[in-house]
Amino acid sequence: MSGWLRRNGWVAALAFAFAALLVATKIIQPGFGASGLESLARAALPFAFATAAMAVVVIAGGIDLTVAAVMAVAGVTSAVLMRDWGVAGTVPAVIVVLALGAVIGAINGAAIVLSRAPDIVVTLAMMYVWQGMALLILNGPGGTATPWLREVILGGVPIPGLRWLPQAAVVLAFALALVWLPLKRSRPGLSLYAIGSDQTAAFRSGVAIGPTKVLAYAVSGLFAAMGGLTLTLSTGVGEPIPGPYLLAAVAAVVLGGVALTGGVGGILGPIIAVLILRLLRLDLTLLSVDPNVTTIIEGTIMAVVVMIGGLLAIRRKRA
After folding, report:
1. How many whole angstroms separate alpha carbon 225 and alpha carbon 205?
2. What is the pTM of this model?
3. What are the backbone angles phi and psi of residue 289, rounded to the nearest 5°?
4. Cβ neighbours around 314 below 10 Å, total
5. Domain ranges in the chain?
6. In which element (H, E) is residue 226 found?
7. How far apart, in whole angstroms, are the C-alpha atoms of residue 93 and residue 238?
8. What pLDDT digit, counting tens, does each position of 151-170 carry?
9. Residue 36 near residue 29, CB atoms below 8 Å
10. CB-hemisphere CA count at 13 Å for 145?
11. How many whole angstroms separate alpha carbon 131 and alpha carbon 134?
12. Cα-based angle 273, 274, 277 (whole degrees, multiple of 5)
């Protein structure tokens, strides 16, 4: 345990901060309980997937500005397919959406590798491409989500003694573990960290830089598609306009301990950071803080976190 704490001290500190915020929330709102946890988990779900998508790319030494746009494409595609294919076509629709997200991510990665342009430039351009595609599929909120699939992320776990545990949290943990844990422990996963730490050294060690970068963006696209799908399940319709997920994802990634220079960090820290930021917003709402002031506070926190992350990245680079 002591060894784990030494290696993951920042993650442990974030977990402690989240627990402290939960206690503060209970003090502010004594009625906060299982239903409050369920609402928090459901609201945080798309943000968590967006953050996971960003974290994978940042670990590999890149940046992905298309995360919110890919979520929009996945969201409207899932809404249209579930509306047109009906209940019987729900599972095939989910598979198609997840595959589409991975393909879009791979296209982003391939464009970066082939053009040799900076990641931020290519993904900025591709962001407009995918935003346009989302509007082409649906020019306004529409489509529908299959009722039984929506139930998967609603409410608590239907097991005595675990009803306090939100199903949305279980879905998030299962999806991230299914993709990230096998990848992180595999050779391609180690290659992601290698190219993020030192791309030249990784190349000299035999790492295929191009395919590894494409893999990073493909996994990012897969996670973004999961986020778009869960957003459709939460609202019941597809929304073609990207939500406020891009800056929130960057802030949560940095707050979660992932170095902007790449090669350092994981997924758990950023996910806890998402929960902290969402719970902080809830607390400000419970304290009857003006919504405009809440937005200013959130934006300030995100900006400060990103700037601190940038300064730390510069410091690490000089060291």
Report:
1. 33
2. 0.93
3. -70, 140
4. 12
5. 42-244
6. helix 209-235
7. 14
8. 999 888 888 878 888 999 99
9. yes
10. 23
11. 5
12. 85
